[in-house]
Design brief:
The complex is a heterotrimer of chains A (about 80), B (about 220) and C (about 240).
Chain A: H1 6-54, H2 65-70
Chain B: H1 2-18, H2 21-40, H3 47-69, H4 71-76, H5 78-84, H6 90-118, H7 128-154, H8 159-182, H9 196-216, H10 218-221
Chain C: H1 6-27, H2 41-68, H3 71-103, H4 112-124, H5 127-132, H6 137-165, H7 183-225
Helix pairs in contact in C: 1-7, 2-3, 2-6, 2-7, 3-4, 3-6, 3-7, 4-6
The chains are: A mainly alpha (about 80), B mainly alpha (about 220), C mainly alpha (about 240).
Amino acid sequence: MPALPLDDAGPYVAGAYLVFLALILIYVAIMASKLARIERELVELSELAERRAAVPDEEREAARPDEVLAGDRAPRARAGR
Amino acid sequence: MSAVAALIRKDLRMELRTRESVPSMFLFSLSTFVLFRFGLDRETLAGDLASGVLWVTLLFAAVLGMNRLFVAEREEGGFDAFLLAPVDRTSLFVAKATVLFGFLVAVEIAAIPAFAVLLLGPSPFQALPGLLAILVLADAGIAIIGTLVGALAIQTRARDLIVPLIALPLVLPVVIAAGHATSPLFAQAGAEALPARWLGVLGLYDLVFGLLALAVFDFLLED
Amino acid sequence: MFGRGLRTLSIASLVLVLGAFSLVFFYAPNDADQGFVQKIFYLHVPLAIVALGGFVTGGIYAVRYLMTGDRAHDLRSYVAIHLSLILGIGVLATGSIWAKASWGAWWVWDEPTLVSFLIVFLLFACYQPLRFSIDDPERQARYAAVFAIIGGAFVPLNFLAVRLAQSLIHPRVLSTTGGDMPGSMRLTFLISFLAMVCLFVTLWKYELASKHASMRLRRLRRALAGDDAAGPLARTAAPTQL
């Protein structure tokens, strides 16, 4: 197998390493957008929690956090599930 | 043991009554032989080509059988009935795999003479003993994988798509081994010796996946 | 929980990957046979080994899931297989580029490892469609685990069969020098391999932590705003609750 001169071989090697780099970076980009969404939701929920903390207990009608977080609740029937 | 026998008897009786799987598998093989005749633009085949055409055809016919294997259980509530019965769950796997093996053998009894008549160049009689050995081992492997994949796919939405997608790569080692083992048998000049190491590969494959299937099948049946 | 040690791992990955690439281009000698093109070997082969290892790891965690019922194992199995599929694309792409540079064709059937890798890849590419086609999450996890176990067991058998199928007439095309690898090449390969392993584990933990965070956020939203605020769960291949 004759060795390819550097000018011929260079693009192939570079191409292979670039493919690898592209895969990693695309992955990072997708994960980054997921992280951005998590952050947005977290901000939303923490605002909700702060508003909730300011309201007196008797007026709260939504689900009690401890019950849901314990995970024992039977899932409610919902469209699409 | 009696549970396995009962299940096999039930499936065989159903097949005899409805004549669903085996005739379709056989007719499909015949059509595929004709397709190959025109697709390859050849009237006789020998050696590698004959071996390849035979095994690919048998494999696709097997996929048809895999698709139908658990349909009755699924549609008529057979799974629930089986789970209620006080029998070992793996008996369903053994029974179904045996049934699929039986279907494959039945199809081959008709399809291989058809192949010999339609497409095969050299005489098949010399190849027969070796071919029988290969068929037994390869059919066992296909039956094991087919039963596993059939059970896996029956509960999914896209059942008919999932079965060939999953089964074909899994069965590829069988096709490789069986194809390589069969091609010297179909040599133009007359059947050559059967390469024994491919039988070894087939045997190993059957053993590994047979044990694996026995270990794992239970989990497919839980509700 | 899943993100523990992630920072150390990513720094280690960075160091190892940069170190490996530096060794590849500044230290390892040119191959006598293939010349500069052989440098792809240091990328392609560790990537392939790690991808295959990832598939087998997915199978191992699937076993643990079936034995314990702990959905965290199912999540680990899913992410491992998912990551290995992505790396698998890289393996096939770099293998193809290597084949083109060495042999002039974008694909060679003569190379047994590349062919058996393609078969394994085709099999595991069905993992996500299978999961997606099962609605019930518990059954989805269970069936996916069975599939992952079958696939994991399939990897070595497949390699054996394909390796045997290559007749001895065709020499290994994409191997390194005909004789032994010189020590410098061996070291470079080892560092590259370690770098890939480290990178895989880092990305794996990264994705596990991200998925876990989304799951807990959903539960938090249900807790704070009521069940309806969270909205119905769309059909998905990924595990959605631990």
